[in-house]
Amino acid sequence: MKYDYLVVGAGLFGAVFAYEANKKGKKCLVIDKRDHIAGNIYCEKVEDINVHKYGAHIFHTSKKEIWDYVNQFAEFNNYVNSPVAIYKDELYNLPFNMNTFSKMWGIRTPEEARKKIEEQVKELNITEPKNLEEQALSLVGRDVYEKLIKGYTEKQWGRDCKDLPSFIIKRLPLRFIYDNNYFNDRFQGIPMGGYTKIVEKMLEGIEVKTNTDFFEFRKENPDIAGKIIFTGMIDEYFGYKLGALEYRSVRFETEVLDCENYQGNAVVNYTEREVPYTRIIEHKHFEFGKQPKTVISKEYSSEWKVGMEPYYPVNDEKNNTLFEQYKELGTKEENVIFGGRLGNYKYYDMDKVIEAALEAAGQELQERE
Ligand code: FAD
Ligand code: UDP
C-alpha cells in the first residue's frame, strides 16, 4: 500500500488528522472533490477582502488547549462577534441581552427585564420545554420569540419551531447585562489573513489532490491506503441504503458594492419571515478592513438535495435515529474512521471539530505505535 491514510476531505477535520499523522511519520494522501482545500472555512480574496465563501466563520472556544493549538497555524485578531437583528423597521442587538430588552420594552434594569419575561412566561404554562418553540418561549418570553427567533429559525431550518430540537436555541447566550458578545467563550477571533492559510500550513509537506471525488477515486485505487478517514456524508458513503439523512443547504449571493461601508457590521440578521434571506454578511468587518469597496453575501437557506452542498445536519430525533444506524454500519468498516460535521452528522463548531479530530488521531496513532 502506498499510503498509511487516505484522508477524504481537506476541511478542518481532515487537515488536523493529516497533520497529526504526518507528524508521527505516517504517509497521508488527502483528497477533496472541490477545487480547493479548507472545506467550509475556505476564504477567497475579492477586492483585497477575505470573503468567507461558505458562510461567516468566527473562531471561538473555551478550551485553552484548542486555542493554543490553532494559534500555531495563525495569528488571530481581536474581533468579537456582535450581530444585529432587523425585524421590520426595528433594530436589535444580539444575543439576547439588556440592549435587546431595553430596546424591546423601553426598560433599563435587569430586574425590569426579568419581570417582563417572567410575566410573559407565566401566561404560557410550559413546565418542561419539549421543542425549540417551548424552549425559546420559556427563556425569553413571547415578544423576543416572535420578533427575533420564530421567523429566522423557520427560514433557517425550513421547519416549524415546534418540530425542532431545543438545543439549537441554547447555542445563543441569554444575559442580563449590557453585553453584545455573541459567544460566552473565553477565546475568540478571526485568523489574520484568512482561514485557508491555517489549512495550508497543516497540509504542508502532505500530498493533496483536489477535484478528486472519493467514490470515483476508489474505483481506480481500491487498495491505496491502509485506512480511510472519511469526512464526507456518512449516508452517501453507504449509498443511502438506509435512506437519506436530511441536511440544510445555503445559497450565498455575493456582490461587490462600490461603497466603503454598507451595513456597519459584519453580521446583520433579518428575523422576519417575509425577507427571503436569513442574514447579510459584510466580510471586511471581520478584519476591520478599510478597502474602498465592500463585499456582501446574502444567505438563502433551503432543504438539501443531491448536487447541493450539505451544510447543516438536521439533528432532530428522526435523523439522529437514522444516523445511529449508519454509525452502527460504520463500526463494521474496520478500516474507515468517520469524522467531521458530515461524517459524524453533528452541528459541530470549528473548535469542536479540531477537538474531535485530535481525539480520533490520538486514539488511532497510539494504537499503531
Ligand atoms: P468540511 O469543512 O465540510 O469539510 C469536508 C470536506 O470533504 C469538504 O471540503 C468536501 O468537499 C469534502 N468531501 C465531501 N465528500 C467528499 C467526497 N465524496 N470526495 C472527496 N471529498 C469530499 N463554526 C464555528 O466555529 N464558527 C462559526 O462562525 C461557524 N459558522 C458556520 C457557518 C456556516 C454557514 C456553516 C455551514 C458552518 C459554520 N461553522 C462555524 C462550522 C464549521 O464550518 C465546521 O465546524 C467545520 O468547517 C467542519 O469541518 P469538517 O472538516 O468537518 O467539514
Ligand atoms: N437564531 C434566531 N435568531 C437569530 C439568530 C439565531 O432565532 O437572529 C436561532 C436560529 O434557530 C439559529 C440558532 O439560533 O439556527 C443558532 O444560531 P447561530 O447563529 O449559532 O447559527 P449558525 O451561525 O450556526 O448558522
From TrEMBL:
Residues 147-347 form the UDP-galactopyranose mutase C-terminal domain. It holds the Pfam family NAD_binding_8. GO terms for molecular function: flavin adenine dinucleotide binding; UDP-galactopyranose mutase activity. Keywords: FAD, Flavoprotein, Isomerase. Its cofactor is FAD. GO terms for cellular component: cytosol. InterPro entries: UDP-GALP_mutase, UDP-GalPyranose_mutase_C. Belongs to the UDP-galactopyranose/dTDP-fucopyranose mutase family. This is UDP-galactopyranose mutase. It comes from Murimonas intestini.
